[in-house]
Model the fold of this input.
Amino acid sequence: QVQLVESGGGLVQPGGSLRLSCAASISTFSIYTMGWYRQAPGKQRELVASITSAGTTNYGDSVKGRFTISRDNAEKSVFLQMNSLKPEDTAVYYCNADGNRLVGFRNYWGQGTQVTVSS
Done:
């Protein structure tokens, strides 16, 4: 049973920082493109950041320059460092694992962790 377990969410003031972590129980973790998505109330889920097996990163326009995604294949984990947080960053953040043809294009989601940016 594959699991993605997020942690690190919480309440932070505007301008503050948080670091999200996602631990994956995937034996072939290094093959997967890992991503962070978020969904705010009444809005569609959107890509925040992703990182390929080769380490290539991609960011949503609204978080460029503020958020950094990284991965540790030995620990089967992916991280999201969030700086200069804004109230509009408030959302549930989800970890995603997106596999390629080598693993049958399997795709997994975590349960999500709440991030609230408010004074």
